[in-house]
Amino acid sequence: MRRVLEILGSSLNLTWQEFKSHKIRTLLSLTGVAFGIFCIISVLATVDSLEYQVQKDIKALGTNTVYIDKWVYAGGPDYPWWRYVKRPSPSYEEMQLLKQKVPAASNVAFNINTNSYVGFENDVINSVNYYGITDEFVNIQPVDIELGRYLQPADYDFAANVIVMGYTIAETLFGKPEKAVGQTVVLKQGKRALVVGLIKKQGKSFVGGWEYDNSILMPLGFMKEMVREKTSNPIIMVQGKESVPMEQLRDELTGAMRSIRKLRPTQEDDFALNDIDAFSSFASEIFGGINKGGWSIAILSLIVGMFGVANIMFVTVRERTSQIGLKKAIGAKRSVILTEFLLESAFLCIMGGLLGLIIVFLLTLASKAIFGFAVFIAPGILVLAISICIIVGVLAGIIPASIAAKMDPVVAIRSK
């Protein structure tokens, strides 16, 4: 153990002496390694952070949940919208029947939405999301209340003219969001509503989502006084029980919906089951592709850096030829010489990696302003980066180190 520590200390000291003696040469050679590590850490950290945020937003849409709509949410350039436009929209009555026909469901909710204004005294905010919901909506899509209360069963039963307001709307209308609770606001068609609750600030969503900050929630019955159900993007939300696989839930929903709509066996489905968990898997595939692109750039940079480090090591071996001969003359084994140069090469790459890490760290400090989300560097990424530096260092130094280890001590001592 003591011998190993001596070799490590000697290699580290020689690396530092090499850096001090040839700062410009060493820095230029380490640029490739630094850029490669920068690419690896920055891409992995950014993609991991973005994927975490996106997956968090997707999970906010409801875990183990299926959205029943006439539209398929897959989208894409070849989206066959003409196949879906004439489909019947989901209805409140269908939602009630599904509660009876689907044992695998733990919560079933109905939702309609539109976009209009909210006014208070002389101030008006346009482009506000209206959501008319049923009582089990909150079980599928949790809503955090900052102040006041959420909608209660009596509000749904009597179609009460009450709303829960988003943070940004309250802040814009009243200056201080907390002042919104207890105030009466004017909605679409001049309807008046009492603000009973303030939704906690959510922040921007990367997948659209519910965007609660710019939304108001109200009982479905009250919403129907302002809009028509069929023209307000009706959706049935079904959350499966924890023990029920998604495939079973989809099968039961398919059978129940076909039965409710009295479709013959030869008729195709006139509804879409949009699986939220499938969105999560699709997002993971996309981020996996982005990671591969980042790795390809990083590998190219590391290869360039590896040649730079190898060049340094060839020069170093030549400059220390007499020292190598002296060490071998007094009993140093080939393995010791080989290990010293390999460690020195690895340390050089680690220095380059640290340079790349410092650049990434500085960028993470400004990531919130640049990307709109905080970038974090996971410990696993740091371990991976250091491991890559060591591997690259060993590969870069293996040939020069082998040459040094095989030198004849007499010839090496006589060299100039």
From TrEMBL:
A Pfam family: MacB_PCD
Residues in ABC3 transporter permease C-terminal domain copies: 296-409
Entry similarity comment: Belongs to the ABC-4 integral membrane protein family.
Protein's name in the database: ABC transporter permease
Signal peptide bounds: none
Protein's organism: Niastella soli
Main location (coarse class): membrane
Membrane topology summary: Multi-pass membrane protein
Subcellular location as annotated: Cell membrane
Transmembrane segments: 27-47, 294-315, 336-363, 369-399
Keywords: Cell membrane, Membrane, Transmembrane, Transmembrane helix
Domain MacB-like periplasmic core: 26-254
Coiled coil (UniProt feature): none
Xref: InterPro entries: ABC3_permease_C, MacB_PCD, Macrolide_Exporter_MacB
Keyword Transmembrane helix: yes
